[in-house]
Amino acid sequence: MLNEIFRAAHTIKGSSATIGHARMASLTHAMETRLDDVRKRTASVTPELIEALLRALDVLKLLRDEVETRVAADVDVDDAAIAVERRAALRSLPPATDEETLRLTVTLEDGPWAAVRALQALLALGEHGRVLSSEPSQAEIER
Asked: Domain residue spans in the chain?
């Protein structure tokens, strides 16, 4: 069943990109990535993941209606994609191996350079080990 859901997300992603529907392609890409993580067993199915995927499915239905009606849906696709990436990622980390796993909390002041400081912190941490996840993710910071 997981493979069927993954293939459906993959097909929707490709089809939406083909017709130029970037918002739908972006959301289904996030869904496909998370589902692939579950397939590879680098992430597990959690209530948070299921909730985020169901919310993303609701958004996809609104985006499908955009194609049919040619009227843009008033929906934040980025929020749905981030929920799939973020909420699922933090709770579905792979189990620790014989390597030591540390959980660090880094809080930065808000301001015009907050994203730059956050990226610097992630890069510095990456020099000392593997960063499994962050909130926001490095991809979100780089946007």
From this structure: 2-91, 96-143
Q: Which of 121, 12, 124 is nearest to 135 (CA)?
A: 121
Question: pLDDT, tens digit, for every residue of 10-55?
Answer: 898 889 899 888 888 988 998 898 888 888 888 778 778 888 888 8
Tokens representing 138? 């490095």
Calculate the alpha carbon distances from 92 to 14, 15, 26, 45, 102 in Å. Answer: 26, 29, 22, 7, 15
Q: List the end-to-end C-alpha distance of the chain, in Å, as a whole number.
A: 33
Take residue 29 and report the two structure tokens written for it.
Answer: 């890409």
Q: What is the pTM of this model?
A: 0.57
SS3 category, 143: coil
